[in-house]
Amino acid sequence: MVQSGGHSGHSHGEEQLSDRQLVLAVAINVLLTLAQIIGGIVSGSLALIADALHNFSDAASLGLAWFARRIGRRPADKLMTFGYAQGEVVAALINLTTLLIIGFYLIVEAINRFADPQPVEGWTVIAVAGVALVIDLVTAFIVYRGAHESINMKAAFLHNVSDALASVGVIVAGVLIILYDLYLADLVITLIIAGYVIWQGITLLPRTVRLLMGAVPDELEFDRIVEFLEGQQGVESVHHVHIWNLGEHHRALETHIVPSFDSLAAFEELKLSLRARLTQRFGIAHATFEACLARDCENALVADHHPAGGRTDHDDQSDQ
C-alpha cells in the first residue's frame, strides 16, 4: 500500500511538472514573438515576421494544449457523459485552422512584396533571428524534458525544432542580404516557412476531423475486428458495430451480438471475455455489448441512423 501511494504521488508530480514546463514554454514563445515582430518591422524583413507568426501559432498551440489537458482530466458527469477528453481534439482543430490561415496570409504578403520590394536591414534580421534560434532551442529542451511519456509534449518539441530551423533560414536570408543585397532571399524564406506551416496543417487536419466525427481509429481495421468478434465461441453474429475514439487515445466499441445460447448468465461471462480480449488484441478499453435474437435484429454491420427511407428531417423541410 505504501508503494502504491508513493508511485501515485510521483506520477502526479511528473504531470504537474509537465504543466509548468508547458506554461514556461508558452511564456517564452510569446515574448519571442513580440521581439521578432518588432525586429521584423524595424528591419523590414517579412521572413522575420513570418517566423514570428509561426512562433505565435506554436505558443497558442502550447497554450491550448495546456488548457485542453486540464479540461481533459475532468471526470465524466451528467453533462459530458463521455468525459472531456475530446477537448484536446477541439484544441487541435483550432490550432490547425490557425496554422492554415497564417500560412496563406504569409503567401499573400510575400506576393505583395514581390510586386513592391522593400529594403531589408540584414544585420537586424540576423541579430533577432539569432536570439530566436537560441530561445527556440532552449524551449525545445524544456519541452523535451517533459516529453518522455506525453505525445502532446513530443509534438510541442517537434514544433520548437521546426521553429529553430525556420530561424536558421531567416539568418541565412540576412547573410545573403548583407553580402549580395539579395533581398529576394527574404521573400523566398517567407514562402518556405509559409509552405511548411500549410503542410503541417493539411497533414494533420484530416485525422483531427475524423476524430471529432467519431471515425474508426486509424490504427484499427473495422472488418478485422468484426471477424475477430464473430470468431469467438458463443458469438453467432454481430451487427450495428460502432468503433470510435474517446479523445485521442482511448478506443471504444459498441455492438449488437447474437449469442449462440439463451442463458443470460452465459452472456454476462461472454461479455467479460470479449472485453478482456478486445483490450489485449486491439487496445479497446471501453466496450458495450447488447444481446439480441437473430430474428429481431437487422443484419447491417453499420447501423443507418437516418429515419426510414434514408431521409432526414432536413430533407423533409427542404421539400416544403
TrEMBL record:
Q: How does it sit in the membrane?
A: Multi-pass membrane protein
Question: Cross-referenced SUPFAM superfamilies, in alphabetical order?
Answer: Cation efflux protein cytoplasmic domain-like, Cation efflux protein transmembrane domain-like
Query: A single GO molecular function, which one?
Result: zinc ion transmembrane transporter activity
Q: Does the keyword Zinc apply?
A: yes
Q: Which domain of life is it from?
A: Bacteria
Record's Gene Ontology CC terms?
plasma membrane
- What broad class describes the main subcellular location of this protein? membrane
Q: Does the keyword Transmembrane apply?
A: yes
Q: Which InterPro entries match?
A: Cation_efflux, Cation_efflux_CTD, Cation_efflux_CTD_sf, Cation_efflux_TM, Cation_efflux_TMD_sf, CDF/SLC30A
List membrane-spanning regions.
21-42, 48-68, 89-111, 123-144, 156-178, 184-205
* Cation efflux protein transmembrane domain: residues covered: 22-213
Concerning its family, UniProt says: Belongs to the cation diffusion facilitator (CDF) transporter (TC 2.A.4) family. SLC30A subfamily.
Please identify the protein, giving its name as recorded. Answer: Cation transporter
